[in-house]
Amino acid sequence: MGCSGCSTGVGVPKGCGSNGNCGTSGCDKLEVFDWLANMELPSGQEKFNWVEVRFKNGRKEYYKNINGLTLTMSSMVAVESSPGHDIGVVSLTGELVKAQMSRRKQDPNSETFKKVYRVATQRDIDKWREVQSKETETMFKSREIAQRLDLKMKISDVEYQGDGAKAIFYYTAEERVDFRQLIKDLASTFSMRIEMRQIGARQEAGRLGGIGSCGRELCCTTWLTDFRSVNTSAARYQQLSLNPSKLAGQCGKLKCCLNYELDSYLDSLKAFPNTDTILYTKKGNARFIKMDIFKQVMWYAYTDEMSSWIELKVDRVQEIIKLNKEKNNPASLEEVAEKDNRVLEVAPTYENVVGQDSITRFDQKKRNQRRKKRSSGQRNPKASADAKQGATVERPQRKQRPKQKPRPTPSGNNDKPQNSGEHGNEGAKKRNNNNRRRNYKRGKKGPEDK
């Protein structure tokens, strides 16, 4: 049988496809894995005749199987209630039930106990589904009645009994509430027996469910059953910022997960000195700023220069405290910190001979060959030989071309003289020679060659 969200309505789940048995894994709250299910009991020992039955939102109770019914995990049963009967799902059988009962301090040999009536029939299941569909509407109406009576309480959940004869109203309140008139109004409105149960903020979050800041489903919804007190000292020991919006969960209280790793932090803090201890040096006194517990590092700052922090390992801090007790103060914290900041050069364990680490190793090979040729002087062997002997090689200077002279002005311009004189005759001779060569290549002869 799956939960109400994935069930087909006849007791068979849609998603897991395990034919009505979600005992090993499923989507139910506070689910238990029976690791003794496939183990046989010793000869002559009878099976423990108590079963654990789960109701809405992880509420679990223990019932005695006095009729010897064959019950397995996820079997739907009709159990004793006052008044009438209730419908639940068997969540655990066998020897593990005995361990759970001893954990909750319930005596299986007591004379007062509740018993299992029968395996739930289809008629019982249909009635149970029908009353479950009324729970949300009943909760909203009950809130309106409580608001009309001006009661400072919040009704967070409603749970109907399997036969519809009783309903349990779960509420939270900061102060004591007189709800006698509320019970009368609810009984007259819904025509059933009313039971009021006050729960805390953590229990309310566990019943409603949700997603935490870690991205997972709430611990109180899935597996956490006991709610231990959480103090702000747990956040201080873990060097967390005391920000209420980050430390509080959906219930408005401090997160339960602050206690999960607290013991490991406390064990690591034993090696650290007292943070109130002042370090005395010749340069000045230093106060504690912050620490990294698992890296075994502490930061200190001089009282005159609080903006600059100096990183010290715990061993060095203990060493400075010991020197202060002997009245032999070090020169400064920087001098002590330099002992840990020295880096030793370690020879590599392998050499990249082929160059397999480089993606462009084939391109680099050609470039390196060109560079070797240039460095070895293969283009100019004489220069390389002189370089090996230590002689300085002087490169020949290039001949500078004569600057081109301005072209002569046309004959129409009377301001400047035409090609006359020594410079003008040279330009005319060059042009004539060029024209003569060009004509000779074309097969023409000029008047001078005839």
Structural description of this entry:
A hairpin with a 4-residue loop joins strand 10 (285-292) and strand 11. By secondary structure, this protein is an alpha+beta fold. The chain is built from 14 helices and twelve strands. It has a five-stranded antiparallel beta sheet.
Strand content: 5-15%
| Main sheet specs | 5 strands, antiparallel
Q: What count of helical segments does DSSP give?
A: 14
Proportion of residues in helical segments? 25-40%
Order of helices and strands: EEEEHEHHEEHEHHHHHEEEEHHHHH
Mean pLDDT: 79
Taking the alpha carbons of the first and last residues, their distance comes to: 123 Å
Overall geometry comes to elongated
Structural class: alpha+beta
Number of strands: 12
Rg from Cα:
47 Å
State the domain count. 4
Strand order of the biggest β-sheet: 2-1-4-3-5
Q: Poorly predicted ranges (pLDDT <50, ≥5 residues)?
A: 1-5, 18-26, 342-348, 411-422
List strands and helices in order, with pairings:
Blueprint: E1 50-54, E2 60-64, E3 76-80, E4 85-92, H1 95-103, E5 116-119, H2 122-132, H3 135-148, E6 154-160, E7 166-172, H4 180-190, E8 193-198, H5 201-208, H6 219-222, H7 232-237, H8 244-247, H9 262-268, E9 279-280, E10 285-292, E11 297-302, E12 310-313, H10 314-325, H11 333-341, H12 361-376, H13 381-389, H14 421-442
In short:
The chain is of the alpha+beta class.
Which properties best describe this structure?
alpha+beta, 4 domains, 450 residues, 4-stranded antiparallel β-sheet, 5-stranded antiparallel β-sheet, 14 helices
